[in-house]
């Protein structure tokens, strides 16, 4: 399994620059890099014709002018939808991107965390299963050392971790952790743990670090939460507002450098 080369703390733009741009769009991803993010996070699922599209929800209603289940439409049909005007009229005409389109953008801008939506899991080992398509798209672009694949569905991660020279994987967990995250990360040979930020403690961060596992909490948007997590020693933070996080990192670094 490949490992990313990171210098903490890493600013990870959650669905792009979601605070000021329509989430999971090329505009949001480009703006996130412009704002100083080192990595962007995106969500992928399958269309009716089994193409990989970048979208968080299982339905179209919240972030496009379409209605219904994503799996009920072909990629060509989804490409006709407006994925920007719901956020602000100035983004009218923004389209749902494919994974390939986002990877092409990131290839010259920075790293990417691909979250595979749990609802896209299929029990059979299909040749065009979503994880197979994700791995193929990454390999075709030679981006294995710049991609981190995560999911709440650990069966995806187990399948990827078994591969030779596969991208790194990150384990996503909810606020109330039902099992030992360290044991799960070790079992999956995870590069990183992605917890709800409310479940992060200094002891958990230290335990992960002792095992060689990085800690990237989600989704943090308040300066006081940034500071608390950075003081715990986390390696990066998922945020909707990379500009605000960058300012917090500078303040924390400034206080450390001025300490006697």
Question: Can you summarize this structure?
Answer:
By secondary structure, the protein is α/β, with parallel strands linked by helices. It has one domain (10-258): Phosphatidylinositol (PI) phosphodiesterase (TIM Barrel, Alpha-Beta Barrel), CATH 3.20.20.190.
Topology:
Elements: E1 10-14, H1 26-34, E2 39-46, E3 52-54, H2 75-78, H3 99-106, E4 111-116, H4 130-140, E5 147-151, H5 154-161, E6 168-173, H6 181-187, E7 192-195, H7 202-210, E8 214-215, H8 223-232, E9 236-239, H9 242-258
Parallel strand pairs: 1-2, 1-9, 2-4, 4-5, 5-6, 6-7, 7-8
Antiparallel strand pairs: 2-3
Structural account:
The mean pLDDT is 95. Helix 5 (154-161) links the parallel strand 5 and strand 6. The protein has a single domain, classed as Phosphatidylinositol (PI) phosphodiesterase (TIM Barrel), CATH 3.20.20. The longest helix is centred in the last third of the chain and has 17 residues, at 242-258. Helix 8 crosses helix 9. With 260 residues, it is α/β, with parallel strands linked by helices. Strands 1, 2, 3, 4, 5, 6, 7, 8 and 9 form a nine-stranded mixed β-sheet that branches. 32% of the residues lie in helices and 17% in strands. The chain has helices spanning 26-34, 75-78, 99-106, 130-140, 154-161, 181-187, 202-210, 223-232, 242-258; strands at residues 10-14, 39-46, 52-54, 111-116, 147-151, 168-173, 192-195, 214-215, 236-239.
């Amino acid at each position: 399994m490949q490992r990313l080369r990171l210098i903490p703390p890493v600013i990870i733009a959650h669905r792009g620059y979601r605070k000021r741009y329509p989430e999971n769009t090329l505009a949001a991803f480009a703006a996130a890099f412009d704002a100083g993010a080192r990595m962007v996070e995106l969500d992928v699922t399958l269309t009716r014709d089994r193409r990989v599209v970048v979208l968080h929800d299982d339905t179209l209603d919240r972030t496009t002018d379409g209605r219904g289940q994503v799996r009920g439409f072909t990629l060509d049909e989804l490409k006709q939808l407006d994925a920007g005007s719901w956020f602000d009229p100035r983004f009218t005409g923004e389209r749902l991107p494919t994974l390939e389109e986002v990877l092409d953008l990131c290839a010259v801008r920075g790293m990417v965390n691909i979250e595979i939506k749990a609802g896209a899991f299929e029990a059979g080992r299909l040749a065009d299963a979503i994880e197979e398509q994700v791995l193929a798209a990454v390999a075709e672009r030679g981006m294995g050392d710049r991609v981190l694949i995560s999911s709440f569905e650990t069966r995806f991660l187990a399948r990827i971790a078994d591969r030779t020279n596969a991208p790194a994987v990150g384990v996503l967990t909810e606020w109330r952790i039902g099992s030992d995250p360290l044991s799960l990360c070790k079992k999956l040979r995870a590069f990183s743990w992605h917890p709800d930020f409310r479940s992060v403690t200094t002891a958990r961060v230290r335990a992960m670090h002792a095992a060689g596992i990085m800690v990237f909490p989600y989704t943090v948007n308040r300066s006081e939460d940034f500071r608390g997590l950075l003081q715990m020693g986390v390696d990066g933070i998922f945020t909707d507002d990379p500009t605000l996080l960058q300012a917090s990192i500078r303040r924390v670094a400034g206080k450390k450098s001025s300490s006697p």
